[in-house]
């Protein structure tokens, strides 16, 4: 797994003294072995890493040696998407602050989705990471997890058995 930190335009790199620098070249970016290691870098230098997020280079489409770049959305465009969602995560419904909102591609770029505002929705970081690129069966997976966990924890409760049957009918 090769993880880099990016804001969509620049990448985080480390100079010879161990300080943080920003580069446009993905080849010069510092790589991490896991998302947790990358997040530790963000937490250690929150000022210099504000707006940066972990990006898995191995699950990205490449043309030769150049990476297909994601579009960087302006603050105004982000606010439009935020307002369209009513300030909530479109996946779990959690209330979001504009600065904590991540942009989720409804149809993932890796599955041919566009990098346009019409293909974006507001999402919390956890849901966006969980969803990743598992469309179109994302909701089916969520339902299966929910049904399994409720059955496992409350198998003798008649109300939950009824809910289970209703959800299965979807």
TrEMBL record:
InterPro entries: HNH_5, HNH_nuc, NA-targeting_endonuclease
Domain spans labelled HNH nuclease: 77-129
One Pfam entry name: HNH_5
CDD domains for the chain: HNHc
GO MF entries: endonuclease activity
Keyword Hydrolase in record: yes
Gene3D superfamilies xrefs: 1.10.30.50
Keyword annotations of the record: Endonuclease, Hydrolase, Nuclease
Entry-linked SMART domains: HNHc (SM00507)
Domain of life: Bacteria
Keyword RNA-binding attributed: no
Protein name (database record): HNH endonuclease
């Amino acid at each position: 797994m090769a993880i880099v930190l990016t804001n969509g335009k620049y990448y985080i790199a480390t100079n010879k003294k161990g300080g943080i620098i920003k580069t446009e070249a993905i080849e010069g970016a510092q790589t991490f072995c896991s998302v947790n290691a990358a997040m530790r870098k963000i937490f250690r230098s929150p000022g210099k890493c504000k707006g940066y997020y972990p990006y898995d280079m191995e699950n990205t489409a490449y043309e030769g040696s150049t990476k297909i770049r994601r579009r960087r959305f302006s603050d105004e465009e982000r606010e439009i998407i935020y307002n369209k969602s009513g300030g909530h995560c479109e996946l779990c419904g959690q209330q979001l602050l504009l600065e904590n909102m991540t942009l989720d591609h409804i149809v993932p770029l890796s599955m041919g989705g566009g990098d346009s505002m019409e293909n974006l929705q507001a999402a919390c970081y956890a849901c966006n990471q969980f969803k990743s690129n598992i469309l179109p069966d994302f909701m089916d997976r969520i339902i299966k997890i929910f049904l399994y966990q409720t059955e496992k924890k409350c198998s003798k409760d008649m109300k939950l058995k009824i809910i289970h049957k209703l959800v299965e009918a979807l």
